[in-house]
Fold this sequence. Notes:
homodimer; alpha/beta; Rossmann fold; six-stranded parallel β-sheet; 15 helices; 8 strands
Amino acid sequence: MLGNFSYKNATKLYFGDDSLKYLNDELPKYGKNVQLIYGGGSVKRNGVYDAVMQILKANGKTVVEDAGVMPNPTAEKLREGVRIARENNVDLLLAVGGGSCCDYAKAVSVSVHCDDDPWDKYFIRFEEPDCEIVPVGCILTMAGTGSEMNAGSVITNHEQKLKIGHVFGEEVMPKFSILNPTFTLSLPKRQMVAGIYDIFNHICEQYFSGEDDNTSDYIAEALMKSVIHSSLIAVEDPQDYEARSNIMWSATWALNTLISRGKTTDWMVHMLGQAVGAITDATHGMTLAAVSLPYYRFIMPYGVKKFARFAVEVWGVDPTGKTDTQTAEEGLAAMEAWMKKIGTAMDLSELGVTEDMIEAIADATIILDGGYKALTRDDVVSVLKASL
Amino acid sequence: MLGNFSYKNATKLYFGDDSLKYLNDELPKYGKNVQLIYGGGSVKRNGVYDAVMQILKANGKTVVEDAGVMPNPTAEKLREGVRIARENNVDLLLAVGGGSCCDYAKAVSVSVHCDDDPWDKYFIRFEEPDCEIVPVGCILTMAGTGSEMNAGSVITNHEQKLKIGHVFGEEVMPKFSILNPTFTLSLPKRQMVAGIYDIFNHICEQYFSGEDDNTSDYIAEALMKSVIHSSLIAVEDPQDYEARSNIMWSATWALNTLISRGKTTDWMVHMLGQAVGAITDATHGMTLAAVSLPYYRFIMPYGVKKFARFAVEVWGVDPTGKTDTQTAEEGLAAMEAWMKKIGTAMDLSELGVTEDMIEAIADATIILDGGYKALTRDDVVSVLKASL
């Protein structure tokens, strides 16, 4: 049943190996002061920083730097970004990097003109912005989160051992995003693979819920097949532009609200993975990979028809003469083989998780109930233990 | 190869059986004078007109009526609509109907504040709007054209025997569209089927061109499969809300620019069908259906790999032990069987075309070259003759 919904996504995208030049079309729309947000310096090594800076200067912008956004951006860093924006009367937040930088920019954007502490307001109390929002633009250097065309933001609080995402309203979406697949080519292979699994799991989270025949489910399967196809090429040759560009485009559509329209959604793999991230600071995509198979094998009996459909439509399993459960199990086995082939983390031990950390991770896990089975805390612990 | 492109689609959609109420959220954004655009009166019979009028009145709007938009809106009618808008200082063009009304509203929107004749300016000289554009909203009562979320407009000139579409820029897209699947339930079955084939062909036009491995191709296949699935349910029971709602949602995504991103596109079936429409005034979707199979069988050898992929991915043809040509032929045979099952027109004779009209239709056919083979005029004639 396709439920009732609204849809609007006004982010302007520029996609391709020449797309950075369109920054010249966007900059004149905003005021003079630009906060340039980036991470640990890879954008300096690969030349993207210089290219962006040149365009900013050519457009007469005053640039204030906001460097050092970490892979899991922290509440502390967020407060610093808000301070920088306030002190410099910033007119545009320009994130140059992966999903972490985009997520962080959005969290800053809704906090600059608000008095409350941003962590408490948006990630503990889940309030909506009630103040002016500073516009955000993204120049993406890693495919994965879909943050370039959605209103989501995930922030980590190490003190409180929490990693929490807030999906804001459409007014928080980036005004524009520049997607140049060549910017992703210098990424270390493990980061590329983490991004690929993040994309795949975003689709799974929206697919493994509700009934079977929605247009959204068909589109989800298409995106999964495209990601699988291109990932196998990209792990053989990370410089394959076609594969990397299709991965980048799939990432955007995997999480820009389209494939969740009219459906319930799950998101428990993200809740588990984010809890692992809160305790270990491990790479997001790899935390998802490490818990996915134990989680899906646990919930499969409660959504067996969808898992059987997944096996047939996404993995090409022949269902002839098999029960739905057998077909579904073959699908998950095919998914496991693919994950091994592309080189995702296959368990939590690889990420440094030990048995004595399980209770703390379970404590940090937010339990949602949109999937085929609402987990109990005991279920969370047993999925985590099975993931070790 | 995923080519370079930009993408923005800011139309706000309200989807579902309760979606009309959101007209109350949109109306306050616009001025007092609303031009209410509709067709032959079916919206009066099914109650949609009254429901819309009540909301307009409750929001204090002054309504000026613009009724009688025909299935193939004419240049003459367009000039009348422009006159109505000018005389009444219209602030919002509100189309209540199918794609014809939405297309027409967009053509009016770019013409109200321009001095030139709209037919000559936009459909003969293909100029872009250089004057203020009046905002458009759509309340959709028929699934098919995708006009509710794109910038396309097709206008017919009977005098000149031409039916021409112009795809404008993103600023011409409707500001909002209300998609209530229950509004489509009172449509005559033949109109529903024409709409379904229109959707399917929109996808084909963007799919049968270029190489194979783009994310866009995967999404196109997903939309085709969803349309086929739901169409078979809808022809058995046109009152099946789930099927009709998925058809409506697929229609929007079949032609809102997404699946053409990074690809070349064909559109020759539309060029042929529109020429048939210009001469006969036959229903748009049926003109497409009548020429599709002869056209695809004609071009198949030039794009055989894609047609074989179509057969396998969309129609479930088993390619084992077959040549690509054999697989492709089986796919087109499966498509033919589906068309017969849902009840599309299967040839031009059904639409009143006789052999002596072929030359005039060929004269009215605009030849594009984005598909697997650029047709010559002789090719056009032979495809049309094969369609009789």
